[in-house]
Amino acid sequence: xxKIFDPVYRKEYMDGYIFGLNxxxxxxxxxxxxxxxxxxxxxxxxxxxxxxxxxxxxxRKILTNDILEDFMLSGVLGMSIDLDGYSEFQIRxxxxxxxxxxxKYDGTEFFPLAALLEEMEIEIL
Length: 125
Hints:
It is a single chain. By secondary structure, this protein is an all-alpha fold. It has two domains: about 1-55; about 65-120, no CATH class. About 60% of the residues lie in helices and about 0% in strands. α1 (about 5-20) runs parallel beside α2 (about 35-50) and α3 (about 65-75) packs across α4 (about 90-105). The model has no long low-confidence stretch (mean pLDDT about 85).
C-alpha cells in the first residue's frame, strides 16, 4: 500500500487504471510494470461492475459514476427514468442506485423545488 505514495508508481497506476476503464482496449499486460497492471485490473473491475463483463460485449451506453448519481438523484426527486439503450446488467445496477435515491425521497420536498424551478422558468417534463 505504501507504493501508492510513490509519485512514479502512482502515475503508472493511474495510467493503467484509465487504460482499464476503456472497454475497447485489450492489451498484453505482460510487458507492463506492476503498477500499470494493478491499475489496469482495478480500472477494468470498476468498469465491469457497472457495465458487465467485457467478454459479454460492450453495451451501447456506458455507465459512469456521474450517470449513476444522476439516476440516484432522480430517485430522490421521485422522477421517472429512461432506460432505453441500457443492457439488462446495467438496468440492474441502475435499479440499485435509483432505489437508493427512492429510499431518501421525501414528497414534501418536491413542492418547494417545483416552485423554485417555475420561478426560474425551468420546465419539468
